[in-house]
Amino acid sequence: MLKNTSERSVNIVIAAISIIVPTLVVVLLKITPPEIKIGFNLNFFPKFHAILNSLTTLALLVGYFHIKRRKDIVRHRYSMFTALILSSIFLLSYVIYHTLKAEDTRFGGVGFIRYLYFFVLISHIFLATIILPLVLKTFSKALMGKIEQHKKWAKWTYPLWLYVAVTGVLVYVFLAPYY
Questions:
Q1: Are 43 and 175 within 8 A, CB to CB?
Q2: Per-residue pLDDT tens for 75-130?
Q3: Which residues contact 71 (CB under 8 A, 6 or more apart)?
Q4: Which of 118, 125, 141, 145 could lock onto 149 through a cystine, CB 3.0 to 4.6 A?
Q5: CB-based contact 54:172 (threshold 8 Å)
Q6: Domain ranges of the chain
Q7: b/e for 62-79, b at 16 or more Cβ within 10 A?
Q8: How far is 49 from 72, CA to CA, in rounded Å?
Q9: Please, are residues 97 and 45 in contact by the beta-carbon 8 Å criterion?
Q10: Would you state the pLDDT for residue 142?
């Protein structure tokens, strides 16, 4: 797909997306949204986000399974594109939800569970901010036909992306009683 595209132009696009998207998310999270009468309850969003993260996790695991079989490259591609699409839908939905909803949900647990929650949350947020350029770079290598480079990038990207997807679900599980 991108075989005739220069590495430099791909890197510029990846850098631009990797700067614009997190900046937009932070800005939107800091803005207090205007009072908008939307006519429906926004409380379905957190569960929807957990479902998207669960499906992303499943797609990543299926993609990994298929590539390890070495002869299922087409299924691997479909699985990984599915994970990318699900993650993109999640990101868009997350931004919409936090743009429309002014207050955050607070975790009410105490003791060890509170420390566990904050460890999961902080590691999830930190890795979620750095996973975007890694995913884009890994995909670009595959689309450019640079499979050996793709494999090298995927060794780092895959476990981090999987961790972000799984911990996204865990954050929902921790917060579910407080929505």
A1: no
A2: 999 999 999 999 999 999 988 887 777 567 888 888 999 999 999 999 999 999 89
A3: none
A4: 141
A5: no
A6: 7-178
A7: bbbebbeeeebeeebeeb
A8: 29
A9: yes
A10: 93
